[in-house]
Write a structure and sequence with these properties.
By secondary structure, this protein is mostly helical. The protein is built from four helices and no strands.
Length: about 160
């Protein structure tokens, strides 16, 4: 059975999927794919955003490690989105692939935008932190020992 509704008619489509799932005449149970696929996709997406946060905002993990984690999570996210789409489109593979590609593209764009935003917020936070702003305009040495100016070495006997 192919769906009578487009992917954007969510209420009608949801009723159709639920009706298909409950019908004893229809083969398969789409909710058994749709619900776990959606949950895994949401969890993978949340972990990807968290990894981006740790990589570019907190900088608690290195960029190479963060990118490796994102590369490992991307196929999990894409596969889960396909399972969701396959159930949502009532086993229509071409429509499920199209919906999955759209959702994966939007999800990837969201993770990239979040990573850029986290990097910008981290840079802005560094620029606005009290420790990084030198408020001493008098020319006197700072009380902070890490900010003291180093004097040039004096020649012996001088």
């Amino acid at each position: 059975m192919t769906s009578h509704y487009g992917a954007l008619k969510v209420r009608a489509k949801t009723r159709e999927v639920a009706g298909y799932h409950r019908s004893p005449e229809q083969p398969g149970k789409p909710l058994h794919l749709l619900v776990p696929g959606g949950l895994v996709a949401l969890a993978a997406f949340a972990v990807m955003v968290w990894v981006a946060w740790l990589t570019w905002y907190e900088e608690s993990i290195g960029r190479a490690e963060g990118l490796a984690w994102l590369a490992l999570l991307a196929p999990v996210y894409a596969g889960a989105v396909f399972l969701f789409s396959y159930g949502y489109e009532l086993y229509d593979v071409p429509r499920a692939l199209r919906l999955a590609m759209i959702l994966v593209f939007v999800g990837a764009a969201a993770v990239i935008i979040a990573a850029v935003l986290f990097a910008l917020l981290a840079k802005e936070g560094d620029a606005l932190s009290v420790d990084s702003i030198d408020l001493d305009f008098s020319g006197a040495e700072s009380a902070d020992p890490s900010r003291k100016k180093k004097e040039p070495p004096r020649p012996p006997g001088g």
